[in-house]
Amino acid sequence: MTTLLSTEGLTMRFGGVTAVDGVTLSIDAGELRCLIGPNGAGKSTFFKCLTGQYKPSAGRIFWRGQDVTGRDSFALARLGIGIKTQVPSLFDGLTPMESVGLALRRLHGEAESRRRARRALDRLGIGALGERRIGLLAHGQRQLVELAMVVAPEPDLIILDEPTAGMSAEETNRAADLIRELNREHAIVVVEHDMHFIRAIARKVTVFHQGKVLMEDAAGRVFADPRVRDVYLGKAVA
Questions:
Q1: Nearest to 37 by CA among 183, 234, 205, 209
Q2: Are 169 and 237 within one domain?
Q3: Is-contact 149 85, C-beta < 8 A?
Q4: Under a CB-based contact definition with an 8 Å cutoff, are residues 45 and 9 in contact?
Q5: Please, what are the averages of pLDDT over each run of 10 residues along the chain (238 residues)?
Q6: Residue 140: what pLDDT?
Q7: Are residues 104 and 216 in the same domain?
Q8: How many domains does the chain have?
Q9: pLDDT of residue 121
Q10: The model's pTM
Q11: Strand order in 17-28's β-sheet?
């Protein structure tokens, strides 16, 4: 199995607070990995280190064996890493077709960008919204437009931070279906604390607790582990 993304001893400190503490893990091609943990466990800080939003205090990040520690998000995207943050960052005056097309223009001409943009919107089930102004779309639809911008360049790995935040139950179920479908062509890492959503998509799960990896295993074993239940209930873990 080809390893796409890996970390060695990744650490992020803010003054005297260590938010991520020596995390080592790897993500393989074709994998669907869920990073979970209660609020404050360090998973979102880890996401920001992986995606170039934070420069880690220590440790290293590798993409296909190449050291990419500290590279900016745009540089990582050019290597084949698609990144979706929790809050959509879209221009309300544009349409989904225009937004996704812009994400493709650095790689393709105008006609090919439109063709690929249409394909990405159709893949996510929002092709009918392609010519509507983004400012008129519901929150869940805006999330899908941004996901289409991530998917359209066909990255090898997609990293998602709480992709269902603010979505209704119906939208969350649809998002779970989409992630499973996207995983047929892309490795995916999902950073999330919503256990109901994670149960719907999880295969292999990494559990964060107090900035460290508490457990990493197949989803069924993770969900059955008493330490994981205690962490989510706020109990001390030995």
A1: 209
A2: yes
A3: no
A4: no
A5: 95 96 97 93 94 96 97 93 85 94 86 93 94 93 92 95 86 91 96 86 94 95 92 68
A6: 87
A7: no
A8: 2
A9: 95
A10: 0.91
A11: 17-28, 3-14, 58-63, 66-67
In terms of phi and psi (left: phi > 0; alpha: psi -120 to 50; beta: otherwise), the region of 204 is beta
> Residue 24: CB partners within 8 Å, gap ≥ 6?
6, 7, 8, 9, 10, 59, 213
For residue 176, the model assigns a pLDDT of 93
Do 182 and 236 belong together in one domain? yes
Neighbours of 79 (CB within 10 A): 16
Place of tokens 């911008």: 149
Q: Are residues 148 and 115 in the same domain?
A: yes
Helix (H, G, I), strand (E, B) or coil at 24: strand
The neighbour count for residue 9, using CB atoms within 10 Å, is 12
120 and 169 together in one domain: no
Write out the residue range of the structural domain in which residue 149 sits. 86-154
